[in-house]
Amino acid sequence: MLRGASAEALRELIGSLGSTGTLEDQARLGRDLFGVVGVLRGDAALRRALTDNSVEGDSKAGLANAVFSAAVGDKAASVVADAASRRWTFSGDLVTVLETLAVLTTVRSAGAKAKNVGNELFGVRGIVDADADLRSALSDPSRTSADRSSLLTGLLAGKVEPATETLVAEAVARGRGSVDSVLDEYLELAAEALEETVVTVHTARELSAADQQRLSDALSRQYDTTVQLHVVLDPDLIGGLRVEIGDDVIDGAVSSRLDDARRQVAG
C-alpha cells in the first residue's frame, strides 16, 4: 500500500498519463514502461538515485532521461522523468508506480476490447491454479524469465488479446511473488483502468448470462460502482453463492450454512 508522497505521485501520474495517441502508441508505452521497471528492479543504485529526496527534482529527471531516453519512446521517457522528479516515501515505490502505469496503459491499449483483458487474465489465473506442474515450472529458478513466460504465452498465442499476452508475460517475468498473486494484482488494475470493481462469484452450478447480468446489476446498485464479474464453479458449495467484492464476502452457500450448524452443535 502506497503512502504519503508516493500515493500522491501515483494519483498525479495517472492523471497526467491521459489516453491520447493511437492504441499502438499506448501498447508501446506499456511495453516501454515495463522495460524501465525491469531495469530499475535489477539496479538498486539507480533506483535510489532516482528517488533521493535530497536531490533536486530536475536533476533526477535529467538522470532518468540520460539513462532511458535512447531506449524508450518519447512518451515513456517523459513519464519516467516526471516520476523521477517527484518525492517518494520509499525507493521501491517508484517501481510499483511505474508498473501500475504500465498495466493501466496496456489494458487501455485494447481499446473497445479492454473488458476482454480482465476476463482473459481471470481465465489464465484459473489455468495456473488448476495445474500444479505448471505452477512449479513457472516458479522454477533454473529457467530463464523468457522461458517461463513462453510456457504460458505459448498456450495463449492467438487466443487472447495482445494486451493480455503482454500482461501474462510480465506477470511471469516479474521475479518476485507467485505468478497467481501477480495476476491477481493485474486483475485489480485492469478493473481500475476500466473504472470497475472486480467481483468473484463462487457457485455450485453454471450461471446463465441472464443470471450473471441480474447479479451484476444488483451488486452495481448496492456498491454504487460498475462491477467486473468473474464466475468460479465450485462443486464443494453444494448450492448457493459466495460473492467476494473487495474486503466483503457475501456467503449464501449451503456448505457454509452446514459448517455453521456443525460448529453450533459441536459447541
Describe the 3D structure.
With 267 residues, the protein is of the alpha+beta class. It folds into three domains: 106 residues; 83 residues; 72 residues, no CATH class. The protein is built from 13 helices and four strands. A four-stranded mixed sheet has the order 2-1-3-4, with helices on both faces. Helix 7 packs across helix 10 and helix 7 packs antiparallel against helix 11. It is globular, with a radius of gyration of 21 Å. The chain starts with a helix and ends with a helix.
Number of strand elements? 4
Q: How would you sum up the global shape? A: globular
The proportion of strand residues reads 5-15%
Which percent range fits the helix content? 55-70%
> What Rg, in angstroms, do the CA atoms define?
21 Å
The major beta sheet can be summarized as: 4 strands, mixed
Structural class: alpha+beta
Largest sheet: spatial strand order: 2-1-3-4
Distance between the amino and carboxyl termini: 39 Å
Q: What would the average pLDDT be, to the nearest integer?
A: 87
Output the number of helix runs.
Answer: 13
Ranges where pLDDT stays below 50 over 5 or more residues in a row are none
Order of helices and strands: HHHHHHHHHHHEHEEEH
Overall tally of domains: 3
